[in-house]
Amino acid sequence: MGFDRTTTPSRFFFSVPTLPAEEQLIVKELFNYFYEVVFHRKEGPSINGHSCEATRDQFSSAYYQANGGLTHVCPICLHRKSNAIKENDLEHYFPKAVYPPLILHPSNLIFICRDCNETYKGVCDALQGGKKPLDRVFRPYRDTVKERAEVAFRREANTDWVKLLAADGIADEQERIENFDLQYKLEKRWSSDIAGIFEQIRTLCAGWGLPKEETRKKLREKCEDLQALSGFPDKFVESAYMKWLCETMFDAFYDNL
Ligand SMILES: [Zn+2]
Question: Measured in angstroms, how far is the CA atom of residue 252 from the centroid of ligand 1?
Answer without folding.
Answer: 32
